[in-house]
Amino acid sequence: MNLIDGNKISAEVKDEIALEVTRMKERGEKVPHLAALIVGHDGASETYVGNKEKACKQVGFDSTVIRFEESVTEKEILEKVNEFNNNPSIDGFIIQLPLPKHISEQKVIEAIDPRKDVDGFHPINLGRMVIGLPAYVSATPAGIIELFKRYKIETSGKNVVVIGRSNIVGKPISILLSQKASPGDATVTLTHSRTKNLKEVVSRADIVIAALGNPEFLTADMVKDGAVVIDVGITRVKSEKTKSGWKLIGDVKFDEVSQKASFITPVPGGVGLMTIVSLLQNTLKAAKGEIYPKK
User: Fold this and answer.
1) Range of the domain at 170
2) Which helix H or strand E contains 94, and what residues bound it?
3) What are the distances in angstroms from CA 112 to CA 63, 78, 83, 261, 289?
4) From CA 157, how far away is CA 183, in angstroms rounded?
5) CB 52 within 8 A of CB 44
6) Any catalytic annotation for residue 52?
7) Does 22 fall in a domain?
């Protein structure tokens, strides 16, 4: 079993980004600027945004975080999105999800200028990705692709099963791996709650990507020997063994599945760390006008 080390790879990518930012400064170019908007005080969201701020500082980006109380109106959020869209100093920004129920997440996402949509959630970026045009790819799928590249995991001709069909992870990664690319050229099966004989389908996979948010759902009897297992899930559960009283676990029953897998990502320390560096990579592309020409 080979452990896919998200800590190691994310550190490598951040070093590469930091070097490019240094070169941009030397050329007298503008430093990349990532902004974030967060509503409320959800612990997981606060931690995630805090990690993004820290990562920006590590690579030399400018960063801005705007916080609103849960009582904020949809109109106020849309006004702030429009302000970000028209602020030339901001290269890319993200809206931290989830938003309160009285605010339409889809309306807010569609209000983002696709050129600054570094989370890759806007329908235009999703559509461009589907047909193979340059686009900002959702951070988690992009992070998985980066791990495949760095660990030289072959995907061409492989049978891939994705468990979970979310717009953020399941659908995008299934499309990316089926495209004519490297990594890519795989035969992909996208499974979900209505899939019949799921265990049988998964057991034939060369690569399994678990992204359904169900703790320890994937067990050893579902995985064939030598499979590559990517665990996207992350759930906080109570634990008497930690000082905080909580621990993070993934969608994969790691202790037993790791005995059969050829490569496997841990939780924490796997895909989650790559999500943040993918966001940094997208912001760097935005600052350099690599996806959309600068105005």
Assistant:
1) 139-272
2) strand 92-95
3) 18, 9, 10, 40, 17
4) 11
5) no
6) yes
7) no
Does residue 266 share a domain with residue 222?
A: yes
On the question of pLDDT at 246 being above 80, the answer is: no
pTM as predicted = 0.94
153 shares a domain with 242: yes
Give the chain's domain count. Answer: 2
Least confident piece of the model among 179-193, 197-211, 226-240? 226-240
Beta strand residue intervals within 132-276, DSSP E: 159-163, 187-191, 207-210, 228-231, 235-238, 246-249, 263-264
96 is catalytic: yes
Q: How many residues make up the chain in this entry?
A: 295
Q: Residues 109, 148: one domain?
A: no
Q: pLDDT per residue over 36-54, tens digit each?
A: 999 998 777 888 888 899 9
**Distance of alpha carbon 188 from alpha carbon 173, whole angstroms:** 9
Residue 281 a catalytic site member: no
In the set 5, 91, 96, 253, the catalytic residue is: 96
Catalytic residue among 119, 206, 231, 251: 119
At what angle are helices 43-59 and 6-26 packed, to 10 degrees? 50
Q: Which of 52, 116, 171, 285 is catalytic?
A: 52
